[in-house]
Design brief:
Elements: H1 3-13, E1 35-43, E2 50-58, H2 63-79, E3 84-87, H3 96-103, E4 107-113, E5 116-123, E6 146-151, E7 164-169, H4 179-195, E8 198-201
Parallel strand pairs: 3-7, 3-8
Antiparallel strand pairs: 1-2, 4-5, 6-7
Helix pairs in contact: 2-4
Length: 202
Amino acid sequence: QSGEDLEAIWAERYNDSEICCLQLKVVDKDDENDYKKKEIKAYKGKPSASISKTFAEKDHFDICLMLELMKKAEEAANEIKDKNVILFLGGTGTGKSTLIHYLAGSKMEKQVVDGEPHIAPTKIRNKALDNVICSASAESETKYITAVPISLKELGVLSIKLDKVVLCDTPGFEDTNGPEVDVANGIGIIKALQTCKSVKPV
């Protein structure tokens, strides 16, 4: 797709004045496999114990990937429209996905992965959790905002005001998946705030 094609797609899908706009520049690359190495520090266990890891990073912005991720984020935004939402925010590897599995009723088990302790779901009761992946590595598995509706009554949680809530998993900003995920994540969170009945960030 040329720059004009992508510009037309963007203009057609995001011409609403209520939607935040981004200014993007399309750059043609002869070699799409042109990567550079980026060294980041990943934390396991205590924050003081940092481990340097090297990830491959593209030196160009993948607009097609961004649009694909934004479509997923929009689907999640539609699922939480007029719902009571708990929005989980935080950096990569802080345990957002693991906590959502626990709160949604998954059976958890302590494991050892590559010599490191890890808590992982072994029995998943909620089908919406299929896209919520827990990983022992420092690399992010969550690439777009994901909605997980739960019934408080079925989980044995007594609430006078609420019967159902939606847990929303989000990627970590500036995580290991690149800037495309940051853009889709930011717009997904904005849409979540605009369409839901109520939101509580965690």
